[in-house]
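I'm stuck. Please check this protein.
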Amino acid sequence: MSMIKHGMRVPARFRLLACGLLLMASAARAAQFDAGYVDVHTVPMLAGAIEDTSRSDPSRLQYAVPTVVAVTSAAVKKMLIAEGWVPYVRPLDETNTDLVFKKGRQGLSVSFTQGLGRPDQSAVTYSPNRIYSNVPFPDGAIDLVFDETRPYLGCIAPATLEAAQDFYAREMAAIGWRKLTPETAASWPNADLTASVPNGVRAYYDHPEGDSTQFYKQKPVMLTLTRRDDGRTNVDIRIAPFALPTDLEAGDTAGLPEPKPYKSSSGRGNARTSTRELIVAALADLPAVEAFYHREFAARGWTEQGSAPLAPGDEVALKFSSPEENGVLHLGRKYDFTMVHLTAQVKESVLAARAKAKKDADDQFMKDAEAMTKQVLADDAARRKAQAATLSDAPLQALAGSNTPLPVPENAQEVESGDGRLEFNSSSSVKALAAFYRAALKPAGWKEEPSVINQPNMAVMEFAKAGKSISMTLMQMGPKVNVSANGSGLRMAAAKPVPTSQPVSNDSVGAQARASAPLEADPDSVLPVPKQRTSTSIGTSKLPGIEVPFRRELDASVPAELGDVLAFYRRELTKLGWQEKPDGAVTSADRVQLAFASPQGPAVLKLGRAQGETSINLVQKNPEAAAKADIMPKPGQAKLMLGNMGNQDAVLTINKQTVKVAAGAGGPQSPKGPMLDLPPGKYQYSLKLAGRPARNDTIDVAAGDAWGLMVGPTGEVLPLQMY
């Protein structure tokens, strides 16, 4: 808002500044929407369109319509044709689903996208497309191929040859093109304006003043009109051959020579691959491109070996070779391009030499690694032996006054205990510590289970009593021995004695103590689980390349009553937006099964009682992720995915179907193995590997489930529920 009051005298310099800013703003907008640049906000929209006004952009317009993309695209094309816009395609861009239009000097680009999460809706975007090299389109022309930057035009005009000739003589002059004569073409020493066209006419034009945009000064063009048998006329406008480069610059793609200038270029492979390929649309005549390759082959020491069989569209096909490769060069014409297809294949002898060199290098690497490993192990054994000499074999006494669930020796250091576990370090040997615990636990009624791990530097000890267990690992760690113990026996041992006058339930006293506390959710768990759990595991199912898992499963055990755990899950799952479903619900004193609908998909909660605790099994499925991974079962059926991690093919027979599972199928290098659709039920299957006896087993599948059967490296079969 102006701060100058009415009636005040404004200094002249302020008035000049304001006028200058206004003129600059007007000039900027005028430049943006000059006669060759369409204001997309003046282009009509489809009926029912809702314009996106979230961003103000003078060079872009987007709106939504309630139809699928295919219908929307056809409707937009029809609407714009009725408004005088002429559709065309660009050379080599025939498969593009976007639309491009021309009206006089103005161009328009229209793109389409599916509505976000709504396949029944479309978004339409208009963008200006400046016509840098303008040439006239005949009225009613079909099969229009046009490049607005060179220019190039190919089409079929509905007029006769004579009418088309009159049209172009008139319309080319109207937009600044001048017909070349021997005098006006004198600046082009190679210009030949006399060549005749069978059944047609040819004319040459230049644009001496450049076009109005001054993007670049237009090169001379060649107009060719030829009469068709149906009375219509073929139209072709392209850069005049004498204005094209003859001495082409060399580029390099995939290690192969690439002629410049070009419209597009792509390569595949490199010096380490067995095959290399180059595809180029060169902006030059075929003789110039052929001369380029004769020059480049010689410069690289490649030998030409005569002509090769012509492929469809070829005009030239040459064979060549280098000391390591054999190759073929294909050249042909399409539109106004010379199309280059160059392939090079490493010779068999070179491949064999490379394979031998790699094998020799791998063998040497393995020998060096084996020697290094032996040396490291020898050094480690010597070090351990020296460290073991410092450990004491002397008998140990229990540390007085310790409140740990198990007695610890008097030289125990860094003692940690709680939640059914005990850990400490000691300067005594593994042998002395093992003897200490055998002497301490045997009188208390603990029976030692046999163990195959009983070495001077490591021992594993298992004890059991009255359904409880203690597992201990004693391992030399440098100059000390680390002792770690866990198990339900430690929780029982840590509980306070219960007075004999009070009844004792089947649950442990420690579990009763934990059960009395309110259950709290662990904030770090992907699926809800109480902090007070004694065990937990979470599994996810997903395929390589798909980050979102399509199945999550939680198993846990909580020292709490089943009713308390059920109340915990109803509370926590409701917080997450899960809705309990009545279908198939089971609620009894010792078993619960409930179905839920979660934001990601269906879920099932199962609770039970085991060893005085409440067991938890919570499964959540993600149908969207399963569909993306292509493992979603058909309605009413189960899906079975087969994989083979072994190094030889396997044959699986199930439900009267025999399937060959190739080595590596379903693994990291080949994620998609064979899949079978099965009705729900229990099936017996048989697996056969060459040179091994058949393995037989059963699998039980339910409707809506997806299971994987993975063959391991040793021939075993691992069933795994994937969805």
In short: The radius of gyration is 41 Å. The CA atoms of residues 657 and 676 lie 9 Å apart. The longest strand covers residues 118-128. The first helix runs from residue 12 to 32.
